[in-house]
Amino acid sequence: MKLTSIELKLAAVDVPRIALNRSTKAVEWGKAHTFPAKLLELVRNSPTQSSISATRARLVAGEGLTDTRNTALTAFVNAKLFVNGKPSKTRFLSALAQDYSVFGGYAFQVIPARGGTVAELHYQRFSTVASGEMDAEEVVPNYYLCRDWKDRRKYPVQEIAAFDPDAGAAEPQLYYYFNAAADQDYYPQPTYAAALNYLQTEAELGKYHVGNVSSRFSAGTILSLPAPQAYTDTDGNVVSAEYQQRRFNEALKENFTGPDGDRILTLFGEDPEKLAKLQPFTDGTPSDLFSTYASLCREQILAANRVPSPAIVGLSTGASLGGEANTLRAAFSLYYSSVCRPDQLDLLAGLKDVFAHVAGVDQAALDELDITTTLPAEQGLTATPQGQAQIDALIASTLPRINKLARLTQMYGLSAADAEALVPADPAPDAATPAPQTTTPVA
């Protein structure tokens, strides 16, 4: 008897090569610039990475951009940051944080005003942007936008100039920011790049369990068939037994392998003695082996994302949090200071680059600008000498009074009255600047 084994093989996931498409003139990240969409798919299908990315983005966005003593900047932030055509400073910052947590980069369109200033900012989905080629000075002069890079006929590629405040352009420009990697000139390196295969495996394990449930936890089946006989078809061609076996195995592999393949095979025949026989069997795989792989995936994904404790990203640790308050607080502070705060500084760096060209905004206002963040693990810290020292440093800082009050109440648990008593009043704000005329962003 000839035995044929059909194995399930999962394709490895790697960061793809970057190449210039001579037709579109875009530098593509993966074939047809589809790797950004692949990253989104991997994150969405991995429970661990999805939780990490969502928590990271939420901590990075915090409660939004702080108000400053410069009324021109405050007015711009409150009314001129757009998402899907609607002004929302909260959604704008959250969208940038989400893209940065998934891709390691973000983008937005800069709408110019008369006089070379900035009128509006419009969020641009990072996955829709492809870089142009660098010029002789290693500067990217333009980018390319497409709503769906897999369907360029339906969504034509559009060119947009890179942000250049000295160009005096009347058309929208694109501000594009990413965390530079040692071997990447055009695109970012996701934080979890080393764990891409674990994201894929975690998703496939989920599909496997869905298949088990839908097939009533059937372990497997041996299919016994009569040996095929060579025959001559209607055109006079000899169809060998080997060819019939190969074609059958190909069809079986196509329809009955994979994590979500069918589990039921229906056969028809006239002679009961010649019917194929199905014999259920147990594959001998311990049930806890899949749990072991699931745990391994989670550990590797957490490590790649530099998460010191699963609890801070909403994942179970298998222990009561009540007895680990100090450990959790330390893990929260470490994660914020080593991962989230650098992300905030990267977002602020890009925004300040553009805000510097808003009419009426000066350097002092940019220095005050920050992101308000609430860390739940910091509650109760005021009772310690370390907490009091942090409060004293906050009061003595150059942050605007409204930001100091917010941090004292949100991060350190002080009452509004106590915070008001500790922080002196700010000096009077400067005069407001009239809003400039605007143009329309690229669709």
Number of helices: 12
Tally of DSSP β-strands: 16
Gross morphology: flat
What is the end-to-end distance? 64 Å
Helix content: 25-40%
pLDDT < 50 stretches: 1-10, 263-270, 379-384
Radius of gyration: 29 Å
Largest sheet: 8 strands, mixed
Give the strand order of the largest sheet, numbering strands 1, 2, ... along the chain.
Answer: 5-4-7-6-11-10-9-8
- By secondary-structure content and strand pairing, the structural class works out as alpha+beta
The proportion of residues in beta strands is 5-15%
The SSE order reads EEHHEHEEHEEEEEEHEEEHEHHHEHHH
Mean pLDDT: 79
Describe the structure.
- The protein is an alpha+beta fold and 443 residues long.
- The protein is 38% helix and 14% strand.
- It contains twelve helices and 16 strands.
- The strands form five sheets. The protein has an eight-stranded mixed β-sheet.
- A hairpin with a 5-residue loop joins strand 6 (105-112) and strand 7 (118-124).
- Helix 2 (47-61) crosses helix 8 (325-355) and helix 5 (196-214) runs antiparallel to helix 7.
- The model is unreliable at 1-10, 263-270 and 379-384 (pLDDT under 50).
Chart the SSEs and their pairings.
Elements: E1 18-20, E2 27-29, H1 35-45, H2 47-61, E3 64-65, H3 71-79, E4 81-83, E5 86-87, H4 89-103, E6 105-112, E7 118-124, E8 129-131, E9 142-145, E10 158-162, E11 173-178, H5 196-214, E12 221-224, E13 231-232, E14 238-239, H6 241-256, E15 277-280, H7 287-304, H8 325-355, H9 363-368, E16 371-372, H10 385-396, H11 401-410, H12 416-422
Parallel strand pairs: 4-7, 10-11
Antiparallel strand pairs: 1-2, 3-16, 4-5, 6-7, 6-11, 8-9, 9-10, 12-15, 13-14
